[in-house]
Specification:
Elements (H helix, E strand, L loop, with lengths): L1 E4 L2 E6 L11 E5 L10 H8 L4 E5 L15 H14 L5 E6 L1 H13 L3 E7 L9 H8 L3 H10 L17 H10 L5 H11 L3 H7 L4 E6 L7 H8 L5 E6 L6 H4 L1 H12 L2
Parallel strand pairs: 3-4, 3-5, 5-6, 6-7, 7-8
Antiparallel strand pairs: 1-2, 2-4
Helix pairs in contact: 2-3, 3-8, 4-5, 4-7, 5-6
């Protein structure tokens, strides 16, 4: 559905279901250069099983108008305002990659507005290498290529899709190619410059689950595991044989971990 939020057209995927304030709610936040489509499988499941399930396109992404926000803190405030505009109450919140940082900050800033938090492909600090940042700043297609290669385990690059004939990496590449000029750089730089992770984690009291791919090269597992101890209530769900793009590489395992974390 489309709404006008902060004076801009904003797209929110709901799997075609109307939102009902009486239902529990879950919200999914996409990563850098991406849009709501990465969450389609999971939004449909929760929407068909008694939840308000939403996956917004962040400002300037996908079908949402406006310029992309340039900091994680600004994205978190935008997201909390959207949840208020939709009158959803406390949500189970999931974010992938950049979206995991947005979810982390939103859970810290929003306190009782987040009842459970899932951080997928999480890492902190989320430093981005100079070659990737430089390519993204120049809107060079090399940025798309690097994110596609580093964002998936080797097995996903030579097949691996559960539907014969479909390519995991090509689907990701097409989504990144659809990003507007400047968006990928804005997102990656927001991740690279974000320094509020420790302070945010210290504020979060809801249950937190880190859902990680054991072969993630974008946000290596070791750093995420070490960071988990900063939360008051945290657990780790490890997906074997999986890189950074877990929603495409291992959809069933990712689905199970999300249901375990977000189901009320």
């Amino acid at each position: 559905m489309e709404i006008v939020y902060q004076g801009q057209t904003t797209y929110v995927q709901t799997a075609g279901y109307d939102l009902d304030p009486a239902k529990p709610s879950v919200c999914f936040v996409h990563g850098a250069g991406m849009d709501h489509a990465v969450w389609t499988l999971f939004v449909r499941y929760f929407a068909r099983n008694g939840y308000n399930a939403i996956a917004p396109d962040l400002r300037g992404h996908g079908r949402s108008a406006g310029a992309a926000l340039t900091s994680i803190e600004a994205c978190a405030q935008w997201l909390l305002g959207l949840l208020d505009a939709l009158a959803l109450g406390a949500v189970g919140l999931a974010g992938h990659s950049m979206g995991s940082l947005v979810g982390l900050q939103a859970a810290a800033d929003g306190a009782d507005r987040v009842r459970a938090l899932a951080l997928l492909g999480f890492g902190y600090p989320m430093a981005v290498g100079a070659p990737l940042l430089d390519a993204a700043r120049a809107d060079d297609h090399a940025a798309v290529d690097m994110m596609t290669i580093w964002g998936h385990d080797f097995g996903a690059q030579i097949g691996g899709h559960q539907v014969p004939g479909l390519s995991i990496t090509n689907i990701t590449k097409r989504r990144l190619e659809a990003a507007r000029p400047g968006v990928i750089y804005a997102d990656l730089n927001a991740c690279h410059t974000y320094t509020g992770g420790e302070a945010a984690a210290a504020k979060i009291q809801c249950p937190v689950t880190l859902i990680l791919g054991d072969r993630d090269r974008m946000t290596p597992v070791r750093g995420a595991r070490e960071f988990a101890s900063r939360f008051a209530h945290a657990s780790v769900e490890m997906i074997p044989g999986c890189g950074h793009g877990m929603m495409e590489e291992k959809p069933e395992q990712t689905h199970r971990a999300l249901v375990k974390t977000l189901a009320s």
